[in-house]
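Issue 218. Parser rejects a valid record. Input:
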Amino acid sequence: GNERGACNSYYACQYAGEEGYAEIARGACFGEEACTEVGYTAGYAKIGAGSCKGNRACYYAGYNGGNATIGKDSCMGDYACVLAGSEQGKAAIGDESCTDYTACDYAGFSGEAIIGDGSCKGYLGCGYAGSDQGYAEVGDESCAFGDYSCGNVAYDGGKAIIADSSCKGYDACYDAGSHDGDVKIRAKSCRSYEAC
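Output the parser choked on:
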């Protein structure tokens, strides 16, 4: 069900939860098609308060057998979390995360992405993380302060575990653990331009 004060834009929540499940909190889903078809077709989507703001911000999240759980004030920006946790994938996004254009697009698409609080800030900050049979785990306050900081981590069958307060800066951990790779990044590591 949708709370009052949500879904206030053109087709903001069209078909949300149809043939699946969608729960949308107060103040969420603002922007053209912001939450269109979330949780649709045997999918599951739970959108926290004040999240999914921007055109197609959470478009198709948790779609087609997928699972997308998005915390408070997350997925802010156009296409920020489009298709996150879709196509039998899983995306669990914490509070105040994925805040920029395409910040977490396709995260956990046909794979799994677990993103902590205050993380994935910047253009493609965690875009495609854990997608295509990958597994990505991003701690709190990580993958921030620069575009591509954790883009493509654990993409294409890979595995990446990134601890708290790591991968800060432009391209800091881009592509880590992708293409069947396996990487663990400790806390407070990889904190500059193309660091890891």
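Fixed in the parser; the record now loads. The chain has a mean pLDDT of 96.
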